[in-house]
Amino acid sequence: RQVTVQRKEKDFQGMLEYHKEDEAALIRNLVTDLKPQTLLGTVPCLPAYILYMCIRHADYTNDDLKVHSLLTSTINGIKKVLKKHNDDFEMTTFWLSNTCRLLHCLKQYSGDEGFMTQNTAKQNEHCLKNFDLTEYRQVLSDLSIQIYQQLIKIAEGLLQPMIVSAMLENESIQGLSGVKPTGYRKRSSSMADGDNAYCLEAVIRQMNSFHTVMCDQGLDPEIIQQVFKQLFYMISAVTLNNLLLRKDACSWSTGMQLRYNISQLEEWLRGRNLHQSGAVQTMEPLIQAAQLLQLKKKTQEDAEAICSLCTALSTQQIVKILNLYTPLNEFEERVTVAFIRTIQAQLQERNDPQQLLLDFKHMFPVLFPFNPSSLTMDSIHIPACLNLEFLNEV
Amino acid sequence: STQRPRPRVLLKAPTLAEMEEMNTSEEEESP
């Protein structure tokens, strides 16, 4: 009688084994040569999970040299790919997302109880057994900061040419062009009519594109919020700086258009659930400048109203806007010297910064809050398109 | 009784800048 011994398929424990000589191919196929589009439709941050599963196997076999080598090659591979694609928003987002995810995995599975509070029992089985990778976590955190800075630089480079045109020059409110101050230079500065003239919709379209890419690549929501806080600060600072230098922009009608544009941006933030990001707060000086352009500027009461309203603008900025303010027509008066002196007297107690213009290149410090994943390693399988057939599931 | 897990061994890592330096010198050495 023939006896059939049926061997039970061994359970996948969420580890990936490879031979040392395949490390270069692993880094090439998973990091340096990988196109984010290849992984569309798969689990976001798949490379990070695969790398963690490889690290875990090297930890399981107590092979410290393999762990060192894999982490070093991974980090160098990521740096190389970022250098090569230093103007590619999608690629940079992809690697920010994956680097942060790898960092989260190294925390979530470190065995440190502080990072295990949301783990399932199964996830706790997937913790590292032999090595403490705290120092590598620091390196990955530093790398994440570098990638974040590259991402902001790319986004700012795309947005900056649009700002003055979209925020100050484009007239989307109908009938407003009839109430421009005398001598208003239409589309002045470098923004001539034509290709370089942008409307606010172009800015919003660009931000929609950034937001979609970041969400598709599984970037942590807290990081997406910080990206938009940074970008809104830059938009606001560039706009305000231009306003502070351009007489033709300091008018009631520009104030009106500006308030409308800001409200559109605020609405966009609400629509994308980003209103808690702190982005609106970064626009406060610009919001106040727009209001200042629209307030009455004549009596003692007007001066008091201006002083109590414009708390986010410095005395120097308020005075500059008042000095530049251009009446709409012969019926509106210029701001008098006496009025400006009244304002200065009321604000002399303030300890305001001396510089007139905002540092539009200022970067807020970025934070990467710990964000554990609910995925379990044994549920992750490697798609054939990655060409990683030399990895063995253990 | 629950077994206390063995303490993990700290793997020393170079800083990001040191890693880059090592990488650059390796690239320079290779033809």
Q: Which band does the percent of strand residues of chain A land in?
A: under 5%
Major pleated sheet of chain A: 2 strands, antiparallel
Measured between the Cα atoms of the first and last residue of chain B, the distance is 59 Å
Runs of chain B in which pLDDT lies below 50 for 5 or more consecutive residues are none
Shape of chain A, please?
Answer: elongated
Strand pairing plus helix content of chain A: what structural class? mainly alpha
**Quick one: which chains have the greatest interface?**
A-B, 23 and 15 residues
Round the Cα radius of gyration of chain B to an integer and report it.
Answer: 18 Å
Can you describe what's shown?
- The complex is a heterodimer of chains A (394) and B (31).
- Chain A is mainly alpha-helical.
- Chain A contains 14 helices and 3 strands.
- Chain A has a two-stranded antiparallel ribbon.
- Classes of the chains: A mainly alpha (394), B mainly alpha (31).
- At the A-B interface, helix 3, strand 2 and helix 6 of A face strand 1 and helix 1 of B.
Observed structural traits:
A: 394 residues; two-stranded antiparallel ribbon; 2% strand; elongated; B: 31 residues; mainly alpha; 45% helix
Outline:
With 394 residues, chain A is mainly α.
Give the helix/strand layout:
The complex is a heterodimer of chains A (394) and B (31).
Chain A (H helix, E strand, L loop, with lengths): L15 E2 L5 H10 L13 H15 L3 H21 L4 H20 L12 H5 L5 E2 L1 H36 L30 H17 L4 H25 L6 H20 L7 H4 L1 H11 L5 H10 L5 H10 L12 H11 L44 E2 L1
Antiparallel strand pairs in A: 1-3
Chain B lengths: L8 E2 L5 H14 L2
